[in-house]
């Protein structure tokens, strides 16, 4: 049942662009049409709970939530957002429930924040609001959320689904048949028909930045880097098939906004918030070469001085393109290197060649663009020799930044499917992703942790070359390698459980 909305907005976010009202009419003729329940959208991620945060994770608002909010608002629904990123408690939820009195509470889910999402649902249950979960984790395992107290789960693109659910509820109808959602009926998960993807991403309103505290993010970045940074999405989906990648929302589809629409969004961010650095958050940036060239032309022409970073695949980073990207302001690229072993890249179904990694890394260095490598240890089938190959590649190119994670079997991926009968630490898993071995792999967890430490040591030695003589650093490096071969490896693989699986 949807509760009647009693009061205006609370103090948990910026005001909406519409004046507060008791309920929001669908159109101007409120008397003849049903009124729409208010929607509260929640991003449950809290930086202080994140095991990675102090070291690695960069803070950006959830664009999924902000795009949903912008879309729903444009359809005449009153929306508020609770963004817990900088919060120390869940008090903002209680405040929102009391003062905004939502009829629908929509929570964004990731595996990392699954427990928190359920906790919020529990807290909100008595409010009488309809509880809706969306985002990658709920889409991969809806049952977990439905049994955890949610009324429905959105499994895919959320904009039209959210508006449909709100409209159904306002008419007092059961939303269970709405395309794109799953519900629990008589103890069983019932999935509605699939919903086609939005055809025209240019038609989406800008994300509703005004509903969160943008300044908290921007000043956080400014303090750390001197830049006012934020995230921009230019596309949805990715056509590649890496076996550990979770893609429950957009699958292998790929759609993009026009370069003109992207430029307009960045200009708006610059004019309203003083943004001067953009992180393109697309799964893979620049899949379509002609599209990218048009965007780069626009950035050079219309946004001089803007700097940006993106995540790219090595097979797309061609030398002539990189020179142009640098001219347009590219300062850093996240590169999914993953492994220095071609055999492992193939097992991961990565679709990249070592030669492409080598070429992209060399050109990035030549162009003076910082590179951040993603590396992965512990994928099924990996041997000690494969790990050595990754270390060798790392040493050869010395990326300015990197992260080495222990492979995380995310629900819904081919990797998860392959190891699901040998998962470890099931309860704690989501909170410890990347730093803990989550399935019974070829080697014990200590081995992977030690290998992670070797990367850190290697990077530290490289940095120390500026202070110590090359001779001293070479000696230290050789001593560390000897220790690895003669002491650490035999000790840690003494517990080896058999040949690599
Ligand atoms: C940009 C990005 C980041 C950025 C920004 C994160 C942020 N604040 O959103 C950074 C670098 C900080 C980041 C960090 C992490 N990320 Co990340 N990230 C992404 C990426 C590439 C894009 C996210 C995005 O904006 N998508 C576009 C929007 C439009 O899609 P969406 O969020 O899914 O929302 C749509 C639908 O899902 C649905 N929907 C979503 N929520 C809701 C809620 C309701 C109520 C409704 C109705 C609908 C709905 O409607 C939305 C609009 O259509 C995704 C991959 C991807 N393509 O989604 C990975 C991804 C979300 N990240 C992932 C992971 C694992 C992480 C980290 C845990 C990594 C780590 N080990 O530290 C952290 C978590 C930190 C955090 N803040 O939660 C995984 C999540 C997998 C999972 N099952 O949980 C993904 C899917 C990558 C992958 N393929 O594995 N990430
Ligand atoms: S890892 Fe990147 S390239 Fe591979 S499927 Fe996922 S999003 Fe696409």
Pick out the low-confidence regions. Answer: 1-31
Average pLDDT over all residues:
89
CATH class term of the largest domain? Alpha Beta
Structural domain tally:
2
**Structural class of the helices, strands and pairings?**
alpha/beta
CATH homologous superfamily of the largest domain? Aldolase class I
Indicate the overall shape.
Answer: globular
**Which ions, cofactors or small ligands are bound in this entry?**
cobalamin, iron/sulfur cluster
Record field, number of beta strands? 17
Number of helices: 16
Largest sheet: 7 strands, mixed
Q: Name the helicity range.
A: 25-40%
Give an overview in words.
The chain starts with 23 loop residues before the first strand and ends in an 8-residue tail after the last helix. The strands form four sheets. The chain has a seven-stranded mixed β-sheet with strand order 4-3-5-6-7-8-9, sandwiched between helices. It is built from 16 helices and 17 strands. With 501 residues, it is an alpha/beta fold. β3, α1 (63-74) and β4 form a beta-alpha-beta unit. The longest helix is centred in the last third of the chain and has 24 residues, at 470-493. Helix content is 38%, strand content 16%. Iron/sulfur cluster is lined by residues 238, 240-242, 245, 283-284, 313, 336.
């Amino acid at each position: 049942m949807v509760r009647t909305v009693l009061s205006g907005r609370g103090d948990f976010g910026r005001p909406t662009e519409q004046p507060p009202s008791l309920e929001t009419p669908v159109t101007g003729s409120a008397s003849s049409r049903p009124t729409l329940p208010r929607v509260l959208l929640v991003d449950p991620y809290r930086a202080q709970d994140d095991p990675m945060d102090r070291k690695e994770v960069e803070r950006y608002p959830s664009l999924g939530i902000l795009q949903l909010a912008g879309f729903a608002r444009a359809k005449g629904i009153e929306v508020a957002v609770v963004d817990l990123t900088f919060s120390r408690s869940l008090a903002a939820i209680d405040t929102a429930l009391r003062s905004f009195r939502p009829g629908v509470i929509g929570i964004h889910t990731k595996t990392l924040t699954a427990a928190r999402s359920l906790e919020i649902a529990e807290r909100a249950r008595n409010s009488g609001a309809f509880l809706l979960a969306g985002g990658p984790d709920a889409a991969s395992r809806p049952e977990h959320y439905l049994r955890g107290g949610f009324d429905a789960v959105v499994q895919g693109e959320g904009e039209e689904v959210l508006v449909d659910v709100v409209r159904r509820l306002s008419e007092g109808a059961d939303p269970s048949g709405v395309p794109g959602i799953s519900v629990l009926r008589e103890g069983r998960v019932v999935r509605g028909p699939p919903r086609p993807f939005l055809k025209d991403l240019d038609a989406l309103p800008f994300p509703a930045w005004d509903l969160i505290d943008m300044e908290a993010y921007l000043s956080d970045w400014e303090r750390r880097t001197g830049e006012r940074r934020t995230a921009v999405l230019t596309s949805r989906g990715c056509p590649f098939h890496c076996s550990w990648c979770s893609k429950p929302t957009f699958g292998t589809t790929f759609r993009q906004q026009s370069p003109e629409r992207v430029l307009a969004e960045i200009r708006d961010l610059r004019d309203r918030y003083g943004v001067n650095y953009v992180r393109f958050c697309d799964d893979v940036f620049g899949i379509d070469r002609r599209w990218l060239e048009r965007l780069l032309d626009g950035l050079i022409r219309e946004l001089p001085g803007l700097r940006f970073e993106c995540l790219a695949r090595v097979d797309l980073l061609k030398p002539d393109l990189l020179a142009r990207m640098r001219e347009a302001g590219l300062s850093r690229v996240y590169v999914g290197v993953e492994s220095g072993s071609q055999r492992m890249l193939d097992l991961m179904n990565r679709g990249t060649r070592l030669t492409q990694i080598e070429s992209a890394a060399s050109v990035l260095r030549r162009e003076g663009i910082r590179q951040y490598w993603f590396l992965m240890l512990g994928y099924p089938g990996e041997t000690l020799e494969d790990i050595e190959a990754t270390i060798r590649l790392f040493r050869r190119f010395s990326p300015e930044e990197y992260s080495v994670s222990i492979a995380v079997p995310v629900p819904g991926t081919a990797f998860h499917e392959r190891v699901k009968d040998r998962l470890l630490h099931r309860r704690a898993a989501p909170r410890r992703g990347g730093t803990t071995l989550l399935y019974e792999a070829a080697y014990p967890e200590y081995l992977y942790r030690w290998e992670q430490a070797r990367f850190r040591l290697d990077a530290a030695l490289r940095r120390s070359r500026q202070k110590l003589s090359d001779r001293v650093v070479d000696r230290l490096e050789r001593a560390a390698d000897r220790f690895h071969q003669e002491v650490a490896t035999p000790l840690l693989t003494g517990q080896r459980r058999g040949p690599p699986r």
